[in-house]
From TrEMBL:
Keywords linked to the UniProt accession: GTP-binding, Hydrolase, Nucleotide-binding
Region (Disordered): 1-106
GO MF annotation: an example: hydrolase activity
PROSITE patterns with a match to the protein in the record: G_IRG
InterPro entries: G_IRG_dom, Immunity-related_GTPase-like, IRG, P-loop_NTPase
Occurrences of domain IRG-type G (ranges): 175-366
GO terms for cellular component: membrane
Species of origin: Sphaerosporella brunnea
Family from the record: Belongs to the TRAFAC class dynamin-like GTPase superfamily. IRG family.
Protein name per the record: Interferon-inducible GTPase-domain-containing protein
Length: 441
């Protein structure tokens, strides 16, 4: 019985547990149905909201479309009004252009009438000017003939083209100093150029020398020395004046002497009208010039041969005094000099000039190196007793030409770099040659 009772209790327990599980399942199912119903209601509310939003959007689109159509209609009205205005403007512009064209025709007709009157006046004035110019030319021609009859040579100024051609012929360069050596045939120009360049006549590059005129055309001689300031120098052997090929009064312009920085007028026995013409043109063109009496040694030697009682120093002093006295008289005669102006004369011999040039070069080298050259190796300084104006001539040539072309330009920011460099180099070279002050003759 006890077993049956226990079995019954166990069955009742299982049944109770089963009912409890079913009740729990039912409750879960009920809860699920509630959640599902809540979700459905939420979904329905969401759909209602979406529908309301869609209706609002649709309504907004309709309003927007209506506004667009209204704007389009307004634009079409404005476009039509604009076209009408544009058309009116075109008609107005066409009317203005037509009026303008009509006015231009009237102005053109009036202008042609004025031009015709002006041409008539110009022709009348031109005829009067031609008559006046003809009379002036006839007067100038008569004056020139009268002056020539009186021995007065014409004054001729070079044209811009002639100036350019003269520079091209001479191979003129702004960074160089150009020295023209001119004068009568046989006055010793070529020998002087050789001496000034530190050359003898038989050395390569020397100018051709001779008693008869050897120079028929302008010859250009760059200075061959490497030591500054010599590379800046270019020397020119100019054809002798007064030859059959070169009339005296045309000499200065035909040789293009107006382009040079410095002119050396060399004369030997006589100071002539041609020499005076050269100096007068130098003054006209503001070109520094020095008169050089060359071959002093030959003249002094001849004086000693003629008078055996003369010592060298006496002959030298007599020759210098006589040369200065004669030149003063000649310059006064041509109106080129008056007391108390310094006499623009340098008396030299080419042998002594060459000796001084070499001595200057060698002293410059000694100053730079600090080493004295052996006496046997020196080429210069052997004829110091014969110097007259050789040191003064060299100093005057270099210093005056430098001051004319380059002075102050090495401190100037303007100008070409070539000129500034040339100025600095030449200034330094002159200092090395001891040419900072005028030497005593």
């Amino acid at each position: 019985m006890e077993e049956a009772r226990k079995a019954k209790q166990a069955a009742e327990g299982k049944a109770k547990a089963s009912r409890q599980r079913e009740e729990a399942a039912r409750k879960q199912a009920e809860e699920a149905r509630k959640k599902e119903k809540a979700a459905e209601e939420k979904a329905k509310a969401s759909r209602q909201k979406e529908e309301a939003a869609r209706k609002q959007t649709e309504e907004a689109r309709k309003k927007e479309k209506a506004a667009e159509e209204k704007a389009k209609a307004s634009y079409q009205k404005e476009e039509a009004a604009r076209k009408q205005t544009e058309e009116a403007r075109k008609k107005e512009k066409a009317a203005e252009e037509k009026a303008k064209a009509s006015l231009q025709k009237e102005e053109a007709a009036l202008r042609k009438e004025k031009e015709a009157l002006a041409r008539a006046k110009d022709l009348e004035a031109g005829a009067a000017e031609a008559i006046r110019q003809k009379e002036q030319l006839e007067q100038k021609a008569n004056d020139a003939l009268r002056n020539l009859a009186l021995g007065i040579q014409p004054v001729v100024w070079p044209t811009i083209q002639e100036l350019a051609e003269a520079k091209a012929k001479a191979e003129y360069r702004e960074d160089k100093l150009h020295f023209a050596v001119c004068g009568p045939s046989g006055s010793g120009k070529s020998s002087m150029i050789n001496a000034l360049r530190g050359l003898k006549k038989n050395q390569p590059g020397a100018a051709k020398t001779g008693v008869v005129e050897c120079t028929e055309t302008l010859h250009r001689y760059p200075d061959p020395r490497k030591q500054m300031p010599y590379p800046r120098f270019v020397w020119y052997d100019v054809p002798g004046a007064g030859t059959s090929k070169i009339p005296g009064w045309q000499y200065f312009n035909q040789q293009g002497l107006y382009i040079f920085d410095f002119i050396i007028l060399v004369y030997d026995m006589r100071f002539t009208q041609i020499d005076a013409d050269i100096l007068e043109n130098c003054k006209r063109f503001k070109i520094p010039a020095f008169i050089v009496r060359a071959k002093a040694d030959q003249h002094i030697h001849n004086m000693m041969l003629e008078n055996e009682d003369l010592e060298y120093s006496q002959a030298r002093d007599e020759f210098v005094n006589e040369t200065q006295r004669d030149l003063k008289s000649n310059l006064r005669e041509y109106g080129l000099w008056n007391e108390p102006d310094p006499l623009p004369l340098r008396i030299v011999s080419n042998g002594a000039l060459y000796d001084f040039i070499k001595d200057s070069e060698e002293r410059s080298i000694e100053n730079e190196t600090g080493v004295l050259l052996p006496a046997a190796e020196r080429k210069g300084g052997k004829k110091m007793a014969q110097y007259i104006d050789e040191p003064a001539l060299v100093h005057d040539l270099l210093k005056t030409a430098y001051e004319r072309r380059y002075a102050g330009k090495q401190q100037t920011s303007g100008g070409s770099s070539a000129i500034v460099a040339a100025a600095a180099a030449l200034s330094d070279g002159l200092s090395k040659l001891g040419m900072g002050a005028t030497p005593k003759s």
